[in-house]
């Protein structure tokens, strides 16, 4: 009993991928929250480094995080660490023997791996590292192919590839627990997906968004700008029921021109349902429908556990909604003729985000999350330009750079209360809740930056005599 208690209060080491750096902390924090655990870093925590030490977790919690994370590569039970091999040795010799012994007895098999970050070691050097650890009381048999236990020596040589030190900055040793889900990035790549469009979301970012939203088994997830359903694919992988809407009839029904090279028209079975069928999650598909995100089509109720979306920015896809500035003739009873085709008009980004936040405030369950992308012009960006709502609080704000002057920010919000009558008044009275009109010029600023860059490159070519 004493051993089980001590083993529930261990330190665990996460090895994280060095991409999407801003997204890693919110992802791990959200996945821990799914298990009712808080994020407790150990020692001198630095968010941008590839190694994090966490306290206050059980092994089951770590396995639960790694079963979903696409930002984390591997997790280890940390046995020892230090800036030099000598200090690592001291740390390991001070580690409680009762925590080691279950994995080092004579009937066990094991293997020791050596991993270096930002430096490559030759094979003989790796063997020397392993041989130098003969002070550890391993009694089992080495098995390189199928060991019962895997141990890893990890050396961190910093993050600057142009300034690699001769000796590691820090060294860790621990027992391997589990690997993350980085394989999902390859297996769900849009390159191999049955149905894609011009704006299909990258597989890795789709899974990150699902994790930020704490999508869980049997949740109901909605995407109001569903497109080709990349976000639905990611959420259905975690056993959530998925549905969505989009104003584009051809995209919803899988018709029209194909986005694939050397293919003019979409095939007969290119649609969102087919994408889920491709990955074996068709049973989680509810449906999608043609709908205008600016028009209320849902009954007034808290329906969704999560709303995850990538609204159009006006770059690859136009921002539009149904309506016209012209007078449209209709019958006195307000019903359009059967042959009526709705006319579309501009849908400003500020209005898109206002409608999205209002919709989420009314249709998310309390505690449910809204995760969406916000395009920004970097020279003008400040936190005050992020849309707010009295019923929603911001949990994280992560940047993905698109160019020197533009980026998009992944905003995660949580519903903290039900809408009340005076919330509408608060939005008018409090400047914090007023829509930021600067978002409406994002398209012009985006292409203005491209034009300036092209002119600068042309001028440079002329100077060089090309």
Distinct helical segment count:
14
Mean pLDDT: 88
The percentage of residues in β strands lies in: 15-25%
Low-pLDDT residue intervals, each spanning 5 or more residues: 1-6
Strand order of the largest sheet: 2-1-3-7-6-4-5
Element order, helices and strands?
HEHEHEHHEHEEEHHEHEHHEEEEHEEEHH
Span between termini: 77 Å
Q: Could you say which structural class the secondary elements and strand pairing correspond to?
A: alpha/beta
**Count of β-strands:** 16
Q: Calculate Rg over CA atoms.
A: 26 Å
User: Main β-sheet, in a few words?
Assistant: 7 strands, mixed
Q: What best-fitting shape do the alpha-carbon axes yield?
A: elongated
Helix proportion of residues, in percent? 25-40%
Provide structural commentary.
The chain is α/β, with parallel strands linked by helices. 28% of the residues lie in helices and 25% in strands. The chain has helices at 2-6, 21-34, 59-66, 85-93, 97-100, 123-131, 183-187, 203-212, 230-237, 249-253, 272-278, 349-363, 421-429, 442-463, and strands at residues 10-16, 51-57, 72-82, 109-117, 141-142, 149-156, 170-179, 220-223, 241-246, 285-290, 304-309, 320-322, 344-346, 364-377, 392-401, 406-415. Helix 9 links the parallel strand 8 (220-223) and strand 9 (241-246). Helix 2 (21-34) crosses helix 8. The N and C termini lie far apart (77 Å). The model is unreliable at 1-6 (pLDDT under 50).
List the helices and strands and how they pair.
Layout: H1 2-6, E1 10-16, H2 21-34, E2 51-57, H3 59-66, E3 72-82, H4 85-93, H5 97-100, E4 109-117, H6 123-131, E5 141-142, E6 149-156, E7 170-179, H7 183-187, H8 203-212, E8 220-223, H9 230-237, E9 241-246, H10 249-253, H11 272-278, E10 285-290, E11 304-309, E12 320-322, E13 344-346, H12 349-363, E14 364-377, E15 392-401, E16 406-415, H13 421-429, H14 442-463
Parallel strand pairs: 4-5, 4-6, 8-9, 8-11, 9-10, 11-14
Antiparallel strand pairs: 1-2, 1-3, 3-7, 6-7, 12-13, 14-16, 15-16
């Amino acid at each position: 009993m004493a051993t089980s208690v001590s083993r529930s209060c261990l330190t665990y080491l996460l090895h994280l991928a060095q991409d999407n750096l801003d997204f890693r902390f919110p992802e791990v924090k959200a996945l821990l929250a799914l298990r009712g655990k808080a994020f407790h870093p150990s020692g001198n925590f630095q968010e941008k480094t590839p190694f994090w030490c966490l306290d206050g977790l059980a092994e089951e919690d770590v396995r639960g995080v790694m079963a979903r994370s696409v930002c984390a590569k591997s997790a280890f039970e940390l046995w020892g660490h230090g800036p030099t091999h000598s200090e690592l040795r001291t740390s390991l010799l001070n580690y409680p023997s009762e925590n080691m012994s279950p994995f080092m007895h004579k009937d066990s098999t094991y293997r020791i791996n050596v991993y270096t970050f930002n430096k490559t070691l030759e094979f003989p050097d790796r063997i020397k590292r392993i041989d130098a650890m003969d002070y550890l009381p391993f009694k089992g048999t080495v098995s390189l192919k199928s060991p019962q236990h895997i141990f890893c020596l990890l050396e961190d040589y910093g993050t600057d590839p142009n300034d690699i030190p001769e000796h590691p900055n820090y060294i860790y040793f621990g027992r391997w627990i589990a690997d993350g889900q980085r394989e999902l990035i390859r297996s769900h790549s849009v390159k191999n997906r049955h149905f894609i469009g011009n704006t299909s979301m990258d597989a890795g970012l789709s899974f990150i968004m699902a994790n930020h939203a704490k999508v869980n088994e049997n949740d109901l997830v909605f995407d109001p700008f569903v497109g080709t359903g990349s976000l639905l694919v990611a959420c259905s992988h975690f056993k959530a029921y998925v549905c969505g809407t989009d104003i584009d009839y051809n995209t919803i029904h899988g018709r029209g021109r194909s986005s694939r090279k050397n293919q003019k028209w979409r095939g007969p079975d290119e649609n969102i349902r087919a994408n889920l069928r491709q990955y074996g999650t068709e049973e989680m598909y509810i449906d999608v429908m043609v709908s205008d995100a600016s028009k209320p089509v849902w009954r007034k109720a808290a329906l969704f556990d999560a709303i995850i979306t990538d609204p159009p920015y006006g770059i690859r896809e136009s921002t539009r909604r149904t309506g016209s500035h012209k007078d449209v003739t209709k019958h006195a009873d307000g019903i359009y003729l059967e042959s009526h085709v709705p006319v579309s008009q501009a849908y400003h980004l500020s209005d898109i985000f206002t409608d999205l936040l209002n919709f989420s405030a009314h249709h998310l369950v309390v505690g449910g999350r809204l995760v969406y992308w916000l395009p920004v012009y970097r020279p003008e960006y400040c936190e005050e330009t992020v849309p707010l709502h009295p019923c929603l609080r911001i949990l994280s704000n992560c940047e993905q750079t698109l160019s020197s002057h533009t980026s998009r920010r992944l905003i995660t919000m949580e519903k903290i209360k039900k809408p009340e009558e005076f919330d509408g008044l608060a939005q008018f009275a409090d400047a914090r809740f007023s829509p930021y009109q600067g978002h409406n010029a994002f398209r012009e600023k985006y292409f203005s930056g491209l034009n300036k860059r092209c002119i600068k490159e042309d001028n440079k070519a002329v100077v060089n005599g090309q």
